[in-house]
From TrEMBL:
This is Nucleotidyltransferase domain-containing protein. It comes from Halorubrum sodomense. Residues 20-29 have a biased composition (Polar residues). Residues 248-275, 283-304 have a biased composition (Basic and acidic residues). SUPFAM superfamilies: Nucleotidyltransferase. One of its GO terms (molecular function) is nucleotidyltransferase activity. It comes from the Archaea. Residues 1-50, 248-312 are annotated as: Disordered. InterPro entries: CD-NTase, NT_2-5OAS_ClassI-CCAase, NT_sf. Pfam families: SMODS.
Amino acid sequence: MGTDIAPPGYPGNQDENESEQQNTGQTSLDDYADETGPTNRQGKTINERRERLEQILEEEMEVVESHQFGSFTRGTMVGPLSEDSDTDVMFVLSREKHGKWERGENGSSNCLRAVKRALEKRYPNSKVKIDRNVVSVQFSDFTVDVAPAFKDGTGGYKIPDTYSEGRSWVRTNPRGYKQRFEAVDNARGGKLQKVARVAKKLRENRNVPVSSYHMEVMAYDHVHNHPNKDASTEELVEGFVEELPRRISRGTRDPVNGDRLDSNMDRSNRKEAIRKAKAARRQMRDARAHRQTGDNEEANEKYGDALGEDID
């Protein structure tokens, strides 16, 4: 998995001092999606920070491989980055050296605590905490989630699961999802990345109480199953927002392992998420109506209302 500064074709890879590129033939939502990613400079910082974290952990334990994974490598991370933005790194540990954490009672919690201690020593001025499967290091510009792992023998990995009182490890296969995501994105001419980033900006701007990954997988499901293989970005985004209340209501499963992504979503949060999705849907319907009559200026305004941010 990636040690690249950013995945190929990441539309957000523009230095702040680059001149604005022409987007001839692109529509408003295409342009908006292209502007939502992190800059090339931020991508370089993400990669450098992963390398520094690897150096720190290798001094404390035996690391056999490391990976950048998550939304950054799939091209679905949204900017501008802040301390609440997170990027994911996985450090695969030697089973021979550290197998006691995999086998022992409370081993997953003990593993996370060991990683936390190692990082706290090097980052005394940063907030370092255990968050379910990872150790989060909150820097001033963004947060890095560090996932210790063991290979599971099937091409995937096992990471700590502290929801089980520190006694277990949960399987994950970020490569599997990335491969599926890229296959759909390539088949749709890069539009899956665009729809996923727009979906995440809707979530962020309107404070919809679902996780970023949950929102992305709902976008993945929509684009993957859309009957029109040549659908425009507008058509895909409009259709996604139209379906969003129903998708939140019925739940979403991980494309690789089939686990429910909303299993920890309580009733009040689900109700609130559906309410906000319905409000966005009403405004998106208005945008679609104006677009169909050729009133692009008003359509852009309604797109902005739906997404919670101005669309030029």
